[in-house]
Amino acid sequence: MADDKKAEISVTVFPGDVGGITANVNRWRGMVGLAPLDEEGLAKESTALTLAGGRKGILVNLGGSSPKRILAAIVPDGDHTWFFRLTAPDALASAELRNFTDWIQSVE
User: Fold this and answer.
1) CB–CB of 32/65 below 8 Å?
2) pTM value?
3) pLDDT class for 17, splitting at 50, 70, 90?
4) In principle, which of 18, 20, 64, 67 could form an S-S bond with 34, CB 3.0–4.6 Å?
């Protein structure tokens, strides 16, 4: 399969908030060549999600100077935080945004 047709998906869960939502999003932003955001900027650049089990989270769609795009959701869950991330070439990630969002929202 050509590299432009490959996506990497990861699902991880960590105890606590692992540095906070803004810090994690800014780490991913750096990976695609974007400058960090403050909490106000993050609120403008993210989308609220509600998962099937009722948990609330956010979705970010990050594309910058890198040929890669990162789609990621962060879902706090009690004393843990779930991270769902898709990293792929820009066109592929953009084409899969709806599928990725639907998948995250189906999680119970």
Assistant:
1) yes
2) 0.91
3) confident
4) 64
Backbone phi, psi, residue 60, to 5°: -125, 145
C-alpha pair distances (Å), 32 with each of 49, 56, 90, 94: 23, 25, 10, 14
**For tokens 């991880």, what's the residue?**
12
> Does the pLDDT of residue 1 top 70, yes or no?
no
17, 77 contact by CB (below 8 A):
no
**Which neighbouring-strand residues pair with 50?**
56
Contact at 8 Å (CB) between 67 and 11?
no
Amino acid making up residue 63: G
Tokens (6 digits) for 90: 């820009």
